[in-house]
Amino acid sequence: MADIVIMPKLGFDMAEGTLVRWVRQVGENVAKGEVLAEIETDKATVEVESVFSGVVRQQLVQAGTSVPIGSPIAVIGTADEVIDLARIAASSSGGAPVVRAASAAAPAPQTPAAVVAGPAFGGRSSASPLARRLAGEAGLDLAKVRGTGAGGRITRKDVEAARRAPVARPAAGAGPSAWLPPLPFTPGPAGEEVRVPRTRLRQAIGRRMTEAKQQVPHFYVTHEYRMEALMAVRAQANAYLAEAEKLSVNDFLVKAVALCLRQFPNLNASLAGEAVVQHAEVNVGVAVAVEGGLLTVVTREADRKALRLLARETGEMVARAREGKVRSADVEGSTFTVSNLGMFEVEDFIAIINPPEAAILAVGSVREAAVAEGGVVKSGWRMKATLSADHRVTDGAEAARFLQALAQYIENPAGLLL
Amino acid sequence: MAKLTMREAISQGLWEEMERDPRVFILGEEVGVWGGTYAVTKGFYDHFGAERVRDTPIAEAAIIGGAIGAALSGARPVAELMTINFAFAAMDQIVNQAAKLHYMFNGQMILPLVIRAVGGGGRQLGATHSQTPDAVFAHFPGLKVVAPGTPADAKGLLKSAIRSDDPVLFLEHATLYQSRGEVPEGEHLVPIGRSAVQRPGRDVTLVTYSKMLEVSQRAAAELAKDGVEVEIVDLRTLRPLDMGPVLDSFRKTNRAVIVEEGWRSYGVGAEIAARIYEEAFDYVDAPIRRVAQKEVPLPYNRSLEQMALPQEQDIIQAVREVL
User: Which residues of A fall within a CB distance of 8 Å from B285?
Assistant: First the structure.
């Protein structure tokens, strides 16, 4: 009985995909796990692996055609069986092919697998789930790793050994390391002086920040947060989510900040003459580095949005900002800003307030640190955040209380999932 | 800190709660004039009187049934079952009445009832008086099941159990009464439903509780001589089960051995292993091993009895298998 291969769903918002190229032609054999075709979504080109073994009997979609997810794209069966599409469709729910990232904009660097001399490790390799995960993360082919666990099982130790093993170099002279720029042999003569005109965005940022730094009396309060619980909850939550939907630490922080601001209306505020306007909505801006400058995208009513929705909206806005397709609604109306440099291994920093807001939170990296608890030094995960606040609106004590209250949300992250 | 035996710690906890709250009273076989089969309530009868330390007939269903009635009427009974093996004679009262009344009557009444029961093998009491059926009771929602392995936990958990508004089965191990440990002075409470790391280590997570904590500690000390650092997580409460420390430890060591005194099939080890596989699958680096009682009614003969019960060597071997 033949099987139908369908267009797979590759992301939360994927509605259709374009079949770019058939890798296996009608009449050719394909084994389960072999690449059948390449498809393109609005994000990347991916290879589609067959979930069935057999002969490609029919291609139901021509190369270059775009079809909705779930549509049948191919029929795989035996070489001589009679293909009755209607009958197959009635009895088969369709096999969504396995996909793997392929020639996206920049091809993923081919991590050379550690080559282990010895017999071929054919067949199904027995590897612990941990080893499988670590090998996947390292881009190692488990078939080439020798297992030393019970019954030849590949364990973490084996994967780590394989990663340390000398790697087979490509024939062409690669540098000492793929990610280090080549070191010049001798310092050459100094280069020419270059004048780079400032973009309009750069100029706007300069104007606003000069104004803020000159006119707003800033003060700064730093707090260190215990991140073990949040990292654990994030890992648990992300296990349920597709790659495109994974929650970032910043998503959690935006939600935590939003909930906390509900307790501190005076920090979700703007100065207006002799009055302080405490805003009705909590709209959290997230600073995004873009080509030639910085934008703040705004998650509206972040306190009332489920984390997953918040993350998706923020992700979409960030993507638009980076592609230069930002919409005016994306960048207007923030009542508080979060600026996160955590991804750059920053311990802490201070940010300039984004007027007319009353405060901005500068967030550093989540890093492993030696922490003392109950007289014992152990390893833990910590993150520092610094609040810059406008002294015309608030004082150090309130800022400190806000940071302290924020710890309640960050360190008890289950509440952020509700 | 005072070094107390498990017996003294339990006795002290019980005494303090009776002094603190006049609604607390004891009932059971030989708990009064005789002072308890395991001498836990020695001196209670003379101090608190016959009203609050009640000797009962040899009728477990009546003991628990009476305690349930008293709890529903506003008292806080601590019913003692001479051994957990006799709980089967009161099974309907325990699992159909005590565990379900609060639920079935929509929370209209509370059931502040503690059942103290002695379990475990190793004293040559024969197959019917030596069982460790902890998992049977932990199976039922509505019942809290507590099984301390140290004197400090025994005292702190018993006090929490007496103050709990839910029925709590408090399991004491027959061969732990003489074991000594430090118990904090003054008011000492241990919350129900919290596991704890009893020995830190990096190589293997050893999950256990009650008597097997003691055996596991010996095995861990032995393994440490060969440089194997075992992390011991003591469950302390079987229901509600706190997997947090177990999972934290497992994500660090990636290997686990679960040690229980009861039988392996459908046991505590099965539950813990399943939860690890469910919640930390991507951290598993070796099959999880269970150490448990051999699947036979526990023999009377001393050598055979010891062979059937999990021993230090069994634990050491299991740890070596997962390394």
Answer: 128-131, 155-156
Compare all CA atoms of chain B with the CA of A237 and give the residue at the minimum distance. Answer: B279
Contact B283 A129 (CB under 8 A): yes
Report yes or no: B281 at the A interface, CB cutoff 8 Å. Answer: yes
Which residues of chain B are within 8 Å of residue A137 when distances are taken between CB atoms? none
Position A315 pLDDT exceeds 80:
yes
Architecture of domain B2-183: 3-Layer(aba) Sandwich (3.40)
Dist. CA B202–CA B124, nearest whole Å:
37
Q: Which residue has the tokens 């706190």?
A: B242
Pair of tokens at residue A194: 């270059």
**Considering only CB atoms, which chain A residues are within 8 Å of B282?**
129-130, 132-133
Q: The domain A200-417 is classified under which CATH number: 2.40.160.40, 3.30.559.10, 3.40.50.300, 3.10.20.30?
A: 3.30.559.10
Domains of chain B, residue spans: 2-183, 196-322
How far is A155 from chain B, CA to nearest CA, in Å? Answer: 6
Chain A CB within 8 Å of residue B283 CB: yes
Q: What are the b/e assignments for B198-215, b being 16+ CB within 10 Å?
A: bbebebbbbbbbbbbbbb
Interface residue of B276, B282, B319 to substitute, partner A, most A CBs within 10 Å: B282
Domain residue spans of chain A: 3-101, 129-164, 200-417
Which CATH code for domain A3-101?
2.40.50.100
Q: Is the pLDDT of residue A177 over 70?
A: no
Rg (CA), chain A: 27
pLDDT for the residue numbered B245: 97
Of A130, A132, A153, the CB nearest to B254: A130
Q: Which of A114-118, A176-180, B94-98 has the lowest mean pLDDT?
A: A114-118
Q: How far is CA A375 from the centre of its chain?
A: 37
Of A157-161, A187-191, A299-303, B296-300, the one with minimum mean pLDDT is A187-191
| CA closest to B287 among chain A residues | A128
Q: Is A156 on the interface with B (CB under 8 A)?
A: yes
The percent of residues in chain A predicted with pLDDT above 70, rounded, is 82
Interval A139-149: pLDDT, tens: 888 888 888 88
pLDDT of residue A113: 33
Say if the Cβ atoms of B286 and A129 lie within 8 Å.
no
| Average pLDDT for chain A | 82
* Chain A interface, best mutation among B252, B278, B285, B288, by max A CB count within 10 A: B285
Read off the pLDDT of residues B191-247 as tens digits, 9 standing for 90 and up.
Answer: 999 999 999 999 999 999 999 999 999 999 999 999 999 999 999 999 999 999 999
Q: How many CB atoms lie within 10 A of CB A35?
A: 18
Q: What is the average per-residue pLDDT within B4-33?
A: 97
Distance CA A35, CA A99 (A): 9
Domain B2-183 and domain B196-322, same fold? Reply is yes
Q: Check B8, B16, B29, B60 and give the catalytic one.
A: B60
pTM as predicted: 0.53
Name the class of domain A129-164: few secondary structures
* pLDDT greater than 60 at residue A168: no
Q: What is the mean pLDDT of residues A127-151?
A: 85
Q: What is the pLDDT of residues A67-125, one digit of tens each?
A: 888 888 888 888 888 877 766 765 554 555 555 443 333 333 333 333 332 333 334 55
* Neighboring chain A residues of B254 at a CB cutoff of 8 Å: 128, 130, 156
Fold of B196-322: Rossmann fold (3.40.50)
Nearest to B284 among A130, A150, A236 (CB): A130
Q: Is-catalytic flag, B102?
A: no
Is B173 an active-site residue? no
Instruction: From chain B, pick out residues whose CB is under 8 angstroms from the CB of A149.
Output: 286
